[in-house]
Amino acid sequence: MSHSLVRLSLNENPLGPSAAAKEAIRNEMDQIGRYPGQKADLLTKAIAAREGVPSDQIVLGEILGQLGFQLAANGPIGGEFIYCEPGYTALVDAVAPGGGIVVPVALNEKLENDLPAISSKMSSRTQAIYLVNPHNPSGTVSDGETFLRFVREMSTHTTVIVDEAYLEFAPDFEQRTAVGLTRAGDNVIVFRTFAKIFGLAGLSIGYAVAPKAHAGALKRAGIGGPDAFDRFALAGALASLQDTGYIPMMRAKVTAERDKWHRLFDSLNVRHTDSHGNFVFFETRRPHAEFSQALQAKGIDIGRAFPPLDQWARISIGLPTENEIARKAVAAVLG
Q1: Which of 31, 155, 201, 311 could form an SS bridge with 195, CB 3.0 to 4.6 Å?
Q2: From residue 241, how far is each of 18, 21, 169, 277 by CA, in Å?
Q3: What is the pLDDT of residues 175-226, one digit of tens each?
Q4: pTM here?
Q5: Cβ 150 vs Cβ 121: under 8 Å
Q6: CA torsion, ordered 6, 8, 11, 14, to nearest 10 deg
């Protein structure tokens, strides 16, 4: 693949981290010969304060794979994990090695998490439900009150994991987040990452807000320990949280670009989802491989297909100039 291709396939934030985060990372360079010390504790405390929970309910790290494996390995052989397909699979990919079974559920007609269908798959064998909200790759969000009511009800029967990697792109983030359920004592684990809106994909750091029992089990398994992170990731994440003006600014920039994409699709009479992430999802009217190759010929890499939706494509929102190039290419291929 040519290195000149514009990569719009991984839902990165090429606009990058806040100026405060960059400065904090640069300031760590002179200390690179030393271990991070208490920086993990400082970040944990900052996250706990942000989420309104005790520090012992925070588990640092991009832990979805480890979480899936641990839940499967510590549960009964053949425990079932329900998730929506197509979807982000980091957690469910780790289930089989732990002895679990993945139970996929198709998205509904709006390409949202199909909550009634998920409920119908519940059984005594269900070990966990994994929900991504906004969903990836569709970008859709479930109705806020309906979603939280569903998560609370399901959590009385099993563990519910809510992946909110993209939720901070939504202006009503505070009303939609499931962290309040965890805070209230429900059996709900919420995952967040600094890789998306905070623009720190290159440093691989995120966190989970979990019930104390789950958080304790993960930490006893060696997950989220302070030695797992370098000082650049810890400093960048902490500074990102402290820069309170960054999220509204980045949210506005991404929303403006996403709206341009949606207007383009509407002008072309192309079906698309109402994405709330930093990407768009739309119907290609042809096999994904054919559409992707046509865009590659115009310098745009959109990555893989998402079967069974093999005539749909996801495009990440890039830099403004990249977006303009990509929109012109998509219009030419679809028009």
Answers
A1: 201
A2: 10, 9, 15, 19
A3: 999 999 999 999 999 999 999 999 999 999 999 999 999 999 999 999 998 8
A4: 0.95
A5: no
A6: 30
What is the distance between the alpha carbons of residues 80 and 92, in angstroms, rounded to a whole number?
Answer: 10
CB 114 within 8 A of CB 143: no
Q: Which long-range contacts (CB under 8 A, 24 or more apart) does 285-294 make?
A: 285/311, 285/334, 286/311, 287/311, 288/312, 288/313, 291/333, 294/333
Q: How far is CA 76 from the centre of its chain?
A: 28
Torsion angle defined by CA atoms of residues 314, 319, 320 and 321, in that order, rounded to the nearest 10 degrees? -100
For the stretch 241-280, pLDDT in tens is 999 999 999 999 999 999 999 999 999 999 999 999 999 9
- Written as six digits, the tokens of 194 are 């600094």
With 0-12 / 13-18 / 19 or more C-beta atoms within 10 angstroms meaning exposed / middle / buried, residue 39 is buried
Strand 80-85 with 279-283, pairing:
unpaired
Calpha distance 308→273 (Å, rounded): 16
Peptide bond connecting 308 to the previous residue in cis, omega within 30 degrees of 0: yes
Describe the crossing of helices 288-296 and 320-334 by its angle, rounded to 10 degrees: 120
